[in-house]
Automatic annotation (TrEMBL):
PANTHER family: OS09G0494600 PROTEIN, PTHR31881. It holds the Pfam family DUF599. InterPro entries: DUF599. It comes from Phytopseudomonas punonensis. Keywords: Membrane, Transmembrane, Transmembrane helix. The chain crosses the membrane at residues 7-24, 75-98, 119-140, 188-216. This is Uncharacterized membrane protein. The keyword ATP-binding does not apply.
Amino acid sequence: MSLSEDYLHHLIAACWFVLCWAGYTRYAHAKGKTTPCLASVLHLYREDWMRRMLLRENRIADANVIGNLERNASFFASSTLIILAGILTVLGASERAVSLLADLPFVQSASRGMSEVKLLGLGVVFVYAFFTFSWCMRQYNFAAVLVGSAPMIGERHVTEQERKAFAERTARVISMAANQFNYGLRAYYFGMATLAWFINPWFFMLVSTGVVVVLYRREFHSDVLEVMVYTQTPAFEPAKEKNE
């Protein structure tokens, strides 16, 4: 195999990876508009949450829930920085990393330059994840401000139409933050797939396809989605009085 053919295989694998990631993101966004999925169903629950929040005098619990969601995004953003630091460390010792990979079974030999390209690609994935999680944190901050500015029950000058519009607007902001968190998690999924690139470009393509299948099943055909869309309520017959 010539050097040009070797690079061509890696280029095909990288293009397939980008196609899987971008294609599934676009497909999930379009299909979610017409088909129940985790994102669309959770948005309906968020609208119910905000409508019920406007009926409560004490909104501390609602603020705590948004704070917990923000902390989840903060945890992943911090973890992403640690991962990026590890990638930069490996880049500084690329020769040793190449020698270690060469000793592993089923690993295709690669030059130092190609190994650095793979590490840079992995770094780009997690840089994207960091920016996504940080933007998610900011949007949850915006949602917390909206909850703090929610009209109280006793405010007579606020109409029901304005309360309904406020609930929908706040739920939409929370859903936008949740979507950013979802994009960050997808970056982690595809970042794990990028590790297969160090073994073999064809295995990299196979794992990228497998990630798409896993994401699709979890978002559109998972058990938790079925429970949230429809949960049958058991019918209980009234207990009959015992004759003494």
